[in-house]
């Protein structure tokens, strides 16, 4: 019985020590939070290392979010590797510090990255592939193809990314460059190697409906639909099929005027294999 008592005692001592260390870190972090703005250059270098790209920060702050400290970034600009071209820009961002991972690695480790006030232009190219065209109005996107790829790679490097209160333009090169504006964009992206999980909702312009929801869990290149292996779900509220579907038949179906609510589930194996749903 003695070895068991020693094991139990050792466990409780270790747990108590861990709680004390975490408590000390919390106390130190709370004391240092008001001084965070004085270290903008150092924090910018750390954020650049975390995001894998050089960054510019308009203003810096800190807060306590949930169970740990967070770094608040305002007017964040992510640049390309050369530090010349803007890859991403948002009104504000927050990087939560992962306390347990920081203890384990003995250095600050980031948790969830949340960006707000982001405006992106997504596009479907003529070959059917999906890409991120850049920032701003779809007709005035200044990002070249290498910049597009850099932004896509940056998005896939983020382990956990949340987009809140943002907007997005969709440009469809396969449909004569048709552009649609989405508002109230809220997305959650998690990348685990070649596995990608995306959940989100967007509000539609009145002419196209009310709202869309999407949930994707796939392996492969997130921006190459033909490589997907997994499942995807989508739903819509009061979606006007005629405006979305176009005049040409798709999958043997011709859309008529009117609006519908729908839910659809799909299986993907190097492209879509099966679709089920209800309207």
Summarize the structure.
The protein is α+β, with helices and mostly antiparallel strands and 279 residues long.
Describe it.
With 279 residues, the protein is an alpha+beta fold. It has five helices and 13 strands. The chain has helices at residues 2-32, 40-51, 99-105, 145-157, 241-245; strands spanning 55-65, 68-79, 86-97, 110-116, 119-124, 130-135, 160-172, 178-192, 195-203, 211-219, 229-240, 259-269, 272-278. Strands 1, 2, 3, 4, 5, 6, 7, 8, 9, 10, 11, 12 and 13 form a 13-stranded mixed sheet that branches. A hairpin with a 6-residue loop joins strand 2 (68-79) and strand 3 (86-97).
Secondary-structure blueprint of this entry?
Blueprint: H1 2-32, H2 40-51, E1 55-65, E2 68-79, E3 86-97, H3 99-105, E4 110-116, E5 119-124, E6 130-135, H4 145-157, E7 160-172, E8 178-192, E9 195-203, E10 211-219, E11 229-240, H5 241-245, E12 259-269, E13 272-278
Parallel strand pairs: 4-7, 5-7
Antiparallel strand pairs: 1-2, 2-3, 3-4, 5-6, 7-8, 8-9, 9-10, 10-11, 11-12, 12-13
Helices and strands, in N-to-C order? HHEEEHEEEHEEEEEHEE
DSSP strand tally: 13
Structural class, by secondary structure, is alpha+beta
Can you give the helix content as a percent range?
A: 10-25%
